């Protein structure tokens, strides 16, 4: 329900008989600036929490005119017999801390807040957010007098971004702040802790700082985004260990494995690293069990054992376009092409579509290069896949672009 809509802000309210009442502030560049929603609306409704959702229409750090009107209305409507939680991310986290002096909540959950956009208050240390500074933000820093309640700040201490330094500046001004480090998450810490069940567990242990920290670390470690982040960092230098983590139960259940393998850059690094270490079987598993669509598997066991898909140096499978009567790798629109299958027993190539399998009218010979790579030859010339995805049948010798991995459909 929309309670108030002024020039710079909107205030929403979801009533509930719950003993939990949340006051949320939308973040920097949030989707809520462009729709009729507010931060945490879905989660609060699922948990049946009362919630006041404050949305800034612009990236003004809740400092532009009109915020007093919003805060005053919240103060009048909140039930102080409930547990009050102020909650925000980035710009919204700054506001949750800054305006707690008016609400006097029990707890503040601030995810990666900024200390100030006034460069003078940061000892002239540059910030990404300097570009959003406005004159009315002068002297905006968070002070001890601003903060009431038990304030938690969740942040990634990685020095590649400024969240750690922002925390230290806030901590210097507000010694009561409790910092919880959430590693490998980047600025969007909250995206690594999302989930209705996870949030309820966090809320239930806000009174126990040590237990809360343990819960946060456990959620982070099992989170899909976190797994993707860690394995993306490790794949280049530790491809085999990354592969082992990729096929671990936690990675598979979170679907992180499938998301990573669909990323061409990650897949390229992984396959090259495994091949350098002579891990051909692992490459086959990666391509067949994580990348191939389930629809390619046959019900007939004998047919499974005789069919292969063909993986190219362009980091995708070989496809065939009926309309253009030609082969492609990594086509822009795969819905217009059909994946190519090789039948070993009949030594023929086929493509599959909704009508079944259709033979491709081409006479090919297959030349084994080693335990993993093959070359394909037609009319005395080798098949070569170009970086653009175009397939040419005009090579007289074999190099990297003329080598293919035949991926068996059987396990």
Structural features:
411 residues; alpha+beta; Rossmann fold; Trefoil (Acidic Fibroblast Growth Factor, subunit A); eleven-stranded antiparallel β-sheet; eight-stranded mixed β-sheet; 14 helices; 24% strand
Question: Can you tell me about this structure?
Answer:
With 411 residues, the protein is an alpha+beta fold. It folds into three domains: 2-222, Rossmann fold, CATH 3.40.50.1820; 223-291, no CATH class; 300-411, Trefoil (Acidic Fibroblast Growth Factor, subunit A), CATH 2.80.10.50. Helices cover 30% and strands 24% of the residues. It has 14 helices and 19 strands. It has helices spanning 41-47, 67-77, 91-98, 100-103, 163-173, 196-204, 209-222, 224-234, 239-246, 249-253, 256-261, 264-276, 280-291, 301-306, and strands at residues 2-5, 9-14, 20-25, 50-56, 83-89, 107-111, 150-155, 178-181, 307-311, 318-321, 326-329, 338-343, 348-353, 356-359, 365-368, 373-378, 381-385, 391-395, 404-408. Strands 9, 10, 11, 12, 13, 14, 15, 16, 17, 18 and 19 form an eleven-stranded antiparallel beta sheet that branches. Strands 1-2-4-3-5-6-7-8 form an eight-stranded mixed beta sheet, sandwiched between helices. Helix 12 runs antiparallel to helix 13. The longest helix is centred in the middle third of the chain and has 14 residues, at 209-222. The chain is elongated and about 80 Å long. It starts with a strand and ends with a strand. Mean pLDDT is 90; it is low at 294-303.
- CATH class type of the largest domain: Alpha Beta
Q: Helix proportion of residues, in percent?
A: 25-40%
- Architecture per CATH nomenclature, i.e. the level-2 architecture of the largest domain: 3-Layer(aba) Sandwich
CATH superfamily of the largest domain: Alpha/Beta hydrolase fold, catalytic domain
Ranges where pLDDT stays below 50 over 5 or more residues in a row are 294-303
Q: How many separate domains? A: 3
